Amino acid sequence: MVTGSGLPGGVVVVRAVGEVDTATAATLVTGIDDARDKKPAVLVVDLSEVGFFGSVGISALIEAERRTRCPMRVVVTPAIRRILGIVGFDAMLDLYGTLDDARTAA
């Protein structure tokens, strides 16, 4: 499940819950695209409630980051951070441990 919401300061959050795999990655992409269309000052992708994050999810995040015209911050669990680190994408994305940290980062 993917939901989107706005926060003060032009921050838009896209929150994924459950699994991001072949069956659900398109929903994440659609959620990110919908949020991007709102022209946020900052786009936050919250993966803190994702239990499984497959390779298609990684591809979706990287593609979304390339298309997004505003700062994109990603909230990750330690497991997702580790996965992104293994494939070297942790250096390409702005990763945070909590939504508050991502929302208030300078």
Entry summary:
The protein is α/β, with parallel strands linked by helices and 106 residues long. It has helices at 25-37, 55-67, 78-86, 99-104, and strands at residues 2-7, 11-20, 42-53, 72-75, 94-96. A 5-stranded mixed sheet has the order 1-2-3-4-5.
Report on this structure.
This protein has about 110 residues and is an alpha/beta fold. It has one domain: Transcription Regulator spoIIAA (2-Layer Sandwich). The protein has helices at about 25-35, 55-65, 80-85, 100-105; strands at about 1-5, 10-20, 40-55, 70-75, 95. The protein has a five-stranded mixed sheet. α1 (about 25-35) runs parallel beside α2 (about 55-65). It starts with a strand and ends with a helix.
Q: Which fold name corresponds to the CATH topology?
A: Transcription Regulator spoIIAA
Outline, from the CA principal axes?
globular
**Helical fraction:** 25-40%
Major sheet strand order: 1-2-3-4-5
Q: Can you count the helices?
A: 4
Please give the radius of gyration in angstroms.
12 Å
Number of strands: 5
Poorly predicted runs are none
Organism: Actinokineospora xionganensis
Domain STAS: 10-106
Protein name: STAS domain-containing protein
Pfam family, one: STAS
Q: What's the arrangement of secondary structure elements?
A:
Blueprint: E1 2-7, E2 11-20, H1 25-37, E3 42-53, H2 55-67, E4 72-75, H3 78-86, E5 94-96, H4 99-104
Parallel strand pairs: 2-3, 3-4, 4-5
Antiparallel strand pairs: 1-2
Helix pairs in contact: 1-2
